[in-house]
Amino acid sequence: MSDHEQRHTPTPPGHSGDALPPVEQHAQQYEAVRNAHETELIEDYVELIGDLIRHRGEARAADIANRMAVSQATVSKMIRRLNELGLVTSKPYRSLFLTEEGQKMAQTSRARHDVVLHFLRALGVDDSTARIDAEGMEHHVSDETLTIMQRFTEQQRTP
Amino acid sequence: MSDHEQRHTPTPPGHSGDALPPVEQHAQQYEAVRNAHETELIEDYVELIGDLIRHRGEARAADIANRMAVSQATVSKMIRRLNELGLVTSKPYRSLFLTEEGQKMAQTSRARHDVVLHFLRALGVDDSTARIDAEGMEHHVSDETLTIMQRFTEQQRTP
DNA sequence: GATAATTGTTAGCCAAGGCTAAACTGTTTG
DNA sequence: CAAACAGTTTAGCCTTGGCTAACAATTATC
Ligand SMILES: [Mn+2]
Ligand SMILES: [Mn+2]
Ligand SMILES: [Mn+2]
Ligand SMILES: [Mn+2]
Asked: Which of A108, A126, A121, A128 is nearest to A149 (CA)?
């Protein structure tokens, strides 16, 4: 088994900082991160497609490729996946549409993204930095933290 | 080229929310996230190895596997990679050590991790949630944001 | 309307990061 | 000290998410 850890060096001397969390809790941290990574890119695609439709009227693969700084082949392949997942509909050589489910995901992702972005700005982070940080952070923020961020942002607005 | 976006639908009607950022800036967001993902796991391994050595006196592959909730084969493979990257030294069937460079990375990663964790707690996030969120967020927080988080945490401590 | 330019697709390659199964080594214990 | 057990490594498999090169379709231009 894995209760090996405990036995050898009960409390090594001269170490600073917090203790290690219990194994199960520690494991849960990394598992949560791996789970987030599984859906992260899909959420970003769906969110971007939604944004392109809202702001530009349509979402084309080339625009996605440019905005993501990725090759068109990569986008094409991902679109097939989104299709199989039931998140977008697409006819060959035509622009993209979100399914019901895709629209729901886009809306959720965008809301979350906005909360994080506005929070960072409220904290005093420069806009372009806030955008970069938010793009990554958004996928690792729990509902609990999200709520607290939102509350904080609102408080800053009305002091 | 890719200035296609501008031409077709100048300003589609009835959309809410912020405008899309310029293409180059938008692309930079996603690129930054991809870059972070490249080093993320390596940082987590090195940080954990450092923590195990500090708290337990040694770092063994089985402990890493347990704490990461990953198979021992996965750990073994990753250790070879860390070796090739000059971050750890290891003799077969023996426990692990960090190189100079590995120690530097462990220290930096841990410091960053702590700032994020303490910040979340100062914000009012529950400890176990804060730990989960911090594990993912830490890799997507810029130095600028990190500094601001640290300042915020200190202010909370001395009101 | 023919040709050029742009956009989209397909095929095939690669690295990262998981896994299981099997073999091997080191340690503990009867 | 031999056997059993625990820990480590290796081999081989899979999925994701990138890429380039070649080809196909659409759209723009003359
Ligand atoms: Mn987003
Ligand atoms: Mn994102
Ligand atoms: Mn960390
Ligand atoms: Mn981490």
From this structure: A121
Q: What is the rounded average pLDDT of the residues B50-78?
A: 98
Q: Which residues touch strand D (CB under 7 A)?
A: A 1-2, 4, 37-38, 40-42, 69-71, 73-74, 77-78, 81, 92-93; B 7, 34, 60-63, 65, 72-73, 75-77, 79-80, 90, 92-93, 95
CB contact under 8 A, A145 and B135: no
> Is pLDDT above 50 for B8?
no
- Max alpha carbon distance in chain A (Å)? 66
- The CA distance from A89 to the nearest CA of chain B, in Å, is 20
- What is the model's pLDDT at position A13? 63
As given in the structure block, the two tokens for residue B24 are: 């180059």
DSSP 8-class letter at B22:
P
Which runs of consecutive H residues, i.e. helices, occur in B57-159? 61-68, 72-84, 100-123, 127-137, 143-157
- Residues from chain B contacting residue A57 (CB–CB below 8 Å): 8-9, 12
What does the pLDDT look like over A126-158, one tens digit per residue?
999 999 999 999 999 999 999 999 999 999 987
pLDDT at site A18: 84
Closest amino acid to nucleotide D10 (CA–C1'): B73
DSSP 8-state code for residue B13 = S
Summarize pLDDT for B83-131 with one digit per residue, the tens: 999 999 999 999 999 999 999 999 999 999 999 999 999 999 999 999 9
Sketch out chain A's domains with CATH numbers. Answer: 23-157 (1.10.10.10)
As beta bridge partners, residue A59 has A96
